[in-house]
Design brief:
Layout lengths: L10 H70 L8 H14 L5 E5 L5 E7 L3 E7 L5 E10 L2 E11 L8 H8 L4 E8 L2 E14 L2 E11 L1 H8 L8 E5 L5 E3 L18 H11 L11 E7 L2 E9 L6 E7 H53 L14 H20 L5 H9 L7 E14 L2 H8 L3 H18 L3 E6 L2 E6 L8 H19 L11 E16 L4 E6 L1 H16 L3 E3 L1 H7 L3 E10 L7 E9 L8 H14 L3 H15 L3 H15 L10 E2 L4
Parallel strand pairs: 17-19, 20-22
Antiparallel strand pairs: 1-2, 1-8, 2-3, 3-4, 4-5, 6-7, 7-8, 9-10, 9-13, 11-12, 12-13, 14-16, 14-17, 15-16, 17-18, 19-21, 20-21
Helix pairs in contact: 1-6, 6-7, 10-11, 14-15, 15-16
Length: 688
């Protein structure tokens, strides 16, 4: 839950995902409907095939039972009417043989006597028959073999085999001898071997005396051969099983009386599994079919269990699911391949479409918003689009940029950019930082503005342009314009380890820029400026009220810078810096120490310096600076005569130096009055 709500995707991904999801959902829906329809169709086809198989097998079994009934009726009639005696071997064998020839589905005609004697005519495929006899001693099986020649049986051979077969021990005999009429029996034991078969057997009464049991035997190899001849799809099969799943008949093209029943059909295990899996859910005696779905060796089969006319027997139809669903699955695989191709193509197209028509224009619009966010309003452009909403959005952003640009001249744009880039919010508050602040003022502005009136505005504008350009070029921030004064600071909002050096460089650049600008007063005299600089810990931040804020600096160090700007009047200098600025700038600047000054409104004195140049701009030392500083040292040592001499030498070297003249006057004043022990070399400023 902590990750998903923060996940973001691009519009290309969203549109592509929407397109692909629509395709997949549609394909899944079609696939589901098609699959269900295919399943219903396969069920219908399976039912149709099963009905056809049940009908064909039913007809075959009906034919078998009809022939068995006809054959038994014919032989029984001969016995009961006295036409044929059961003990007349030659006539009996002839009648049995004729029935085998007349009824092709019959495998054997058998007769058993209560004393254990047995006689039968057994068909050996379509090429021969055997006449089998077992006497009442049950020890020998006599076999006469006849082979067909041009449709007529001819004696071939005779053989005798030891046997333990006894008719009276067989179920078909035991049950039939006690019954009132014939019925069907299942048997596997024959005088000459084991083979699955059914017998239609019943008692024979002659002159109200039960003389034995007559049976018509049909070996199920013939049914197996019939099952193999059924056309059941491409790979389906039909089997006849008993209640336990034992094979009664299984498809076998070579099945006959000479070959044992084969159960090697690959579908046979599925048929057995189906009837065993059904369990108590299926009862062959109630006549109701049962449908089952079984899995053998990871293959799925549809099986239908149908009761048939023989008690306990079931016709089991097995159809591999792939028989009907295989083509559907193949079609689905092709559909999936086609769908994959379609998804890839649609994905690529949707990505291209989203990129070209939506994402690319939106990215451009977002970039314009970034320009607005960074306050780079000059870079904002309008982008036409084929989508009305995007074009309207681009136009709205352009209008917003124009509106903000109109206010850019009222606020320090660079400051806004920096505050935005650093993530500073417009809330009340600030922090103490080491910074440098500069105040720039136009000399003689009060009188000039009175004389020029509103004509002062163009002059001020050019003056402010010159100063503002140099401040910004030196990484400074213009705080505000106060009449003709410009306030700027360094070290915020972005920290600047060289704030003092940059501030000094900006001051010198402002001095040169105003001089080179050609600005002049109403008398044609060049405009002169005064600059005060100080460094130290200042409170910087959003100062003001909840209604309006001003990002500015306040503090004692700021007030001193303002007073130092005014102190230029005393010394005739252009730029005065405080002691902390001097310390921080170090060897990067060229200065002369002016004096120890107690600025207006502040009791303690501080060392002040006149900023002359950057160290990298000047190679030779200034002699007049050394002379002045020597005079200042003598002054502080109370050697006022020597001090005056040094100051006079400085004036001579520089030709004019108001600071030296001021110090000469102070030396004269000290010479005129005695210096007491409370003397202090600090100059006290009486005005701002």
């Amino acid at each position: 839950m902590g990750v998903l709500p923060n996940m973001r995707i691009g519009i290309r991904g969203a549109i592509s995902g929407l397109v692909l999801t629509s395709i997949v959902v549609s394909a899944a829906g079609v696939h589901l409907l098609w699959w269900r329809a295919a399943e219903r169709t396969s069920q219908m086809l399976a039912n149709t095939i099963n009905e056809q198989i049940v009908s064909a097998v039913g007809d075959e079994l009906q034919s078998i039972t009809t022939e068995a009934l006809s054959a038994r009726t014919a032989v029984r009639t001969l016995f009961q009417e006295g036409v044929l005696d059961t003990r007349q071997a030659d006539k009996r064998k002839f009648v049995f043989l004729s029935q085998l020839l007349a009824q092709p589905t019959i495998s054997s005609v058998v007769f058993g006597w209560p004393d254990g004697s047995f006689s039968a005519a057994h068909k050996l495929g379509d090429t021969a028959v055997e006449l089998q006899d077992i006497a009442d001693d049950h020890s020998k099986l006599q076999i006469d073999r006849y082979e067909f020649f041009q449709g007529d049986p001819r004696f071939n051979s005779h053989r005798s085999e030891a046997t333990s077969y006894s008719a009276v021990d067989q179920e078909w005999f035991r049950e039939a001898i006690k019954s009132d009429g014939p019925r069907w029996f299942t048997l596997t034991t024959h005088p000459d071997g084991e083979r699955p078969a059914v017998a239609f057997a019943g008692p024979i009464d002659v002159d109200d005396k039960r003389v034995g049991v007559l049976g018509i035997v049909i070996e199920l190899t013939r049914v197996s051969r019939f099952l193999s001849q059924l056309t059941i799809g491409k790979s389906a099969g039909a089997f006849i099983l008993d209640r336990t799943g034992a094979a009664i008949a299984s498809p076998d093209t070579e099945a006959d009386e000479l070959n044992a029943l084969k159960t090697d059909d690959p579908l046979f295990p599925a048929a057995v599994s189906a009837i065993r899996q059904a369990g108590s859910n299926y009862n062959p005696d109630d006549g109701q079919a049962y449908r089952s779905r079984v899995t053998v060796d990871d293959k799925i089969y549809e099986a239908v269990l149908t009761p048939i006319s023989f008690p306990g027997w079931s016709l089991v139809t097995v159809v591999p699911e792939s028989e009907f669903l295989g083509p559907v699955q193949m079609t689905i695989r092709r559909l999936l391949i086609g769908l994959a191709v379609l998804i890839v193509a649609a994905g690529l197209f949707s990505v291209w479409f989203a990129q070209r028509l939506i994402a690319a224009p939106l990215i451009k619009v977002v970039n314009e918003i970034r320009h607005v966010e960074r306050f780079d309003l000059d870079k904002v452009e309008r982008h036409p689009s084929r989508l009305t909403e995007i074009e309207n959005l681009s136009g709205a952003i352009g209008d917003m940029a124009q509106g903000l640009a109109a206010f850019r001249k009222y606020i320090p744009a660079d400051l806004v950019k920096r505050l935005i880039s650093e993530g500073n919010k417009a809330t009340l508050g600030g922090a103490i930082r080491p910074m440098s602040v500069m105040f720039v003022d136009m000399a003689g502005f009060t009188g000039l503005s009175e004389r020029l009136g509103d004509r002062i505005i163009p002059l001020l504008s050019r003056y402010f342009d010159s100063v503002s350009t140099e401040v910004q070029a030196s990484s400074g921030t213009i705080d505000k314009f106060i009449g003709d004064a410009v306030m700027a600071f360094w070290g915020a909002p972005a920290p600047n380890a060289e704030h003092a050096i940059d501030c000094c460089r900006a001051a010198l650049s402002c001095q040169r820029a105003v001089h080179d600008s050609g600005l002049a007063d109403d008398a044609g005299n060049p405009i002169r400026i005064r600059i005060g600089i100080n460094s130290g810990d200042m409170l910087v931040g959003n100062i003001g009220s909840e209604v309006r804020l001003n990002y500015t600096v306040i503090g004692d160090a700021v007030n001193i810078a303002s007073r130092l700007e005014g102190a230029n009047k005393i010394y005739g200098s252009v730029i005065i810096i405080g002691p902390e600025t001097r310390r921080l700038a170090g060897d990067h600047i060229v200065v002369r120490e002016l004096d120890r000054l107690a600025v207006y409104g502040r009791a303690g004195g501080l060392q002040i310096y006149e900023l002359l140049d950057m160290a990298d701009k000047r190679t030779a030392p200034l002699r007049w600076v050394s002379l002045y500083e020597s005079g200042l040292a003598s002054y502080r040592a109370r050697d006022f005569a020597a001090a005056m001499q040094h100051f006079e030498d400085a004036i001579a070297d520089r030709r004019q130096d108001q600071a030296s003249s001021t110090m000469i006057e102070r030396c004269k004043q000290q010479l005129e009055r005695s210096t007491d022990d409370g003397w202090d070399d600090t100059m006290i400023a009486r005005t701002k």
